Amino acid sequence: MDLGLKGRAALVAGASKGIGRACARALAGEGARVAICARSADELGRTAEAIRAETGGEVLAIPADVREPAEVRALVARTVQAFGTLEILVTNAGGPPPGLFDQMTDADWQAAFELNFLSTVRLVREALPHMRRQGWGRIINIQSTSVRQPIEGLVLSNGIRPGVAGLTRSLVNEVSRAGVTVNTVCPGRISTDRSRGYLESRAKAAGMSYEDYERREMASIPMGRMGQPEEIGYVVAFLASERASYLTGVALQVDGGLVRGLI
User: Fold this and answer.
1) Cα separations in angstroms, 15 against 11, 57, 91, 119, 217
2) Does domain 9-188+228-254 fall into CATH 3.30.360.10?
């Protein structure tokens, strides 16, 4: 299937590794021109080179910290300067540290809010004028199944991420007639460095070996395995495509059946 992405201008945040990298790789593989950002310039540069080699696509590496308003403005401006426009935005910023409610201070909550909520607000704010101007756009917010079902030991994520889903659904009412779709992707257990760190912390808290805890976690997933980052990337590429033109306001789980809810 031709997704109609050839030549489209995309920006993927948090893209030096893991899910963000997989999203950028999938978009570039479909012919989109892709700007990627992350805090580490060296790692980001290596990722850009790898995606170019794998896809033959145009990939622009822009070091940026999406927690900083000025850097977000500069990031979008450089993307538009390079590509002439911005049509696809994938917001992604990793996740806040694990922990329980009694362990979290006001500073922890504020940091999580800046990382996961305000970074999304600021990226969307900068990108939307370009999408409205051309009458076409795709905004895809990478969040977590904690939007649907709280995850044990991730109270910051459980508290902040549903707010992004609420923001997404509110934006639908404001931008749909401008030709812009807005969706949230909710990954479940995906094989990334962050997932391993979470499992290690939970195994330690449970007094179990990592291997035993991982087996127990995998048994709770109907498909019996973790997802791979590229499995998120393929979904994002579809949501960014011409083929998803009537799909908006959705919080889409990509979790191997982990979340048990009906809706």
Assistant:
1) 9, 15, 10, 14, 26
2) no
